[in-house]
Amino acid sequence: MDITQFSVEEILDPTNIIEGKRYEFILDVEIDEEDELYHEAGIEIRVLLGEKDGESFILNYFIIEKAENEYLDFALEDEELATILTFCQEALTKK
């Protein structure tokens, strides 16, 4: 899995109920053709990232098939989640 493009937006909490910060990442990913996640039109992963006390963590993620804009019912492997978390942390430090 290679992340080819991304966008990030901070999710603001006007009520101040949520502690820390929240971000939404949209990751455009390239998947090997032999992977079960592979779709010809491509997929993107929507990641909700939390940040509190200097630590970042994935709150939730959604895998979306781009052609039909449908959610796919797959779970990412721990290694893939670690790669995504590292990518998101690096993107926030460059911001």
TrEMBL record:
Pfam families listed in its UniProt record: DUF6509 (PF20119)
InterPro entries: DUF6509
Annotated protein name in UniProt: Pullulanase
Organism: Lysinibacillus contaminans
